[in-house]
């Protein structure tokens, strides 16, 4: 026992500095990001972190594969953002399923970013103190600090130094156990749920392992064949092995591709968030284009998160020292310099022609936002900084003077650039003031030109902290370099260095997002839904705009089911039917007008704060009668490149591939109308019909159709709501492209409501947040007494068009049946949703056969058991689940979610793990025999 105590004591004595550094790595993130805030109650979750990060982490704290809360239910593993299979998140959020747990998960990843970088630098023979500062500046690099709100990205990003560490360990020591560790690190990178990051890590790691094996191979006199084999082995075990280890995570996502809408990015989307030249001032003055230093209101292009390229001034100075003074002695300097330059070119995006070539690179072209390549730039600068700092620590007087001369020159150049930047920016104030009062929104900007000019003119003065604090920091760095040249690296100078560096880090790190976010609080809307809504498991809500605690994803915290979500991979059929390819519907008013569809989905309440939406909701009725035709005779029509026939109009495109007929009609605001006409294609042609006036031209008011060449007329019609229209508009029918068509019997009729409005206003708070009740809503679990056959989602979409006669309370559209059938009446006696992966029901059938509908998402992996016997799930209403129940009387129905892709992936993971362990064992055994 005494020997153990003595050994422990000796360990702590020998490693007291390292232990102190590790403790600092764990403590500093809480200070830099959290000082002054109660992190037990406030989230370090700005932007996406507050919208999706925290709610999704709450979802995994009560872990199940399936979440019922969004889009009719969703498989969390296919979302690629929930962390539902990321082991650190699962562990932490199940121990601390609260605000503290989220903050702890976030900040501990900053700590490990520093620790992994520190260990990597030590492996490169960097002195302990220089390695510590190198880890510190990467931990609080501009990229990682700015992405505080992107928890998935952050969790994945920290493993770059970990992967490089194991590569370096293996290259130097040839112990294959390090490659197994590398595969595990790469697996964690992948399962951290940000797919671009493993690619970025591969962009650095693969060139690095090639570079290192070439260097070591030459030093050791290895043959080219041996070097190539080592490169292949290292790559295969770390990257391919890591991918196979993550199969339990990857296969569900790969499987989801066939059901989702996400496709290839256009070049415009791929190149969005590139770093333009006019943002170069932010590299020295990070907040020069923000409303104020403690308010996250960036008035530059895109947003500050993706474009934040700032690094501490000392990093720039000592990275330059490494490049200027060490490049001839250490080939590592060349590698990291080339990487920094290459990544910076990528950061510029389509501001250089090079990025069009990058778009052709398979894999890389799947990810947008070139500004995210600041990640590689900042990591490379952190490594160069550590090399530069390492050179001056303990250097003799001659070398010290050489290194500090380079540092002084660099710091002075930075100072001159800072002064020049301020002179140029201040000189632009008169020019920018000319744009005051100009309410134009520039492409990729959030604010109007007037707002930008106002903020710019106000901010360009020396009382602005965004101006004078960076200047003070630069001056302090210059002064330190001058004194450092004289006194060297001593306790005093190193302490001052640490102080200046931490002040610099705190300056940009603490305020990069402003104040932390408060979790969703109880609102009047939320209180009403909880108190008056009844059993929240039985219905869904359609929030048309942001509602704290309800949407975009606050509902997950409050256990409310909504039909929209903040999803990166929306389901294709769901998006087709509802238009909800993102949180906001493609056409919200169209979705609201489809009363039968929302009712079938179980939507009991609609919530909105938008005045236009409210006006529209009041105008929606469940059924209508057609009024008089508002279209006059042929004399009222104007026709372009066409002609009047005896009983019809002929439209034929002219030289501009366009033909149009139009007539003026009176229109009422927020009124439903039906447009109808007969058309016969003289050739195949693309037609459109719409309502148009100056300032009144929306997609929802237009019908686009393809008319095939035919000898017979076919009727086309569609309904629309006039919205906030002028009193007189033009009804237009035309063709686009080459072709000709004959049109007749055109009508536009007002749809006069037969009943009361479809939605009933039941609540409104002082801020105008309004809840509408849908009396026709159908319980999430119910029976249909009539089932109708359909073939695909398009047929379902047509059947659920506005004003269709589908009755969601009694009818269901079912794929896989041949004919319409009447079913027996059924009732749901008990509903048990306590296990999201296995909802259970007790039902009663009055008749020989019933059809049970659960309005949850139809998705592969679901099984159903009726009275303990597995039976078939039918795709119902395009996106739901339906089950036949045979025999009169009581029955039990149990759904079970068994995601085969996950379990198959888990098998692959265990096989890969076993294979990698076997490789390690065999290699060690082989090495042991060689030693013997």
TrEMBL record:
The keyword Transmembrane helix applies. The chain crosses the membrane at residues 20-40, 100-121, 128-144, 150-167, 176-197, 237-257, 269-289, 309-326, 333-355, 375-395, 407-428, 465-483, 495-513, 902-922. The keyword Membrane applies. InterPro entries: Uncharacterised_YfhO (IPR018580). Keywords: Membrane, Transmembrane, Transmembrane helix. This is YfhO family protein. It comes from Christensenella hongkongensis.
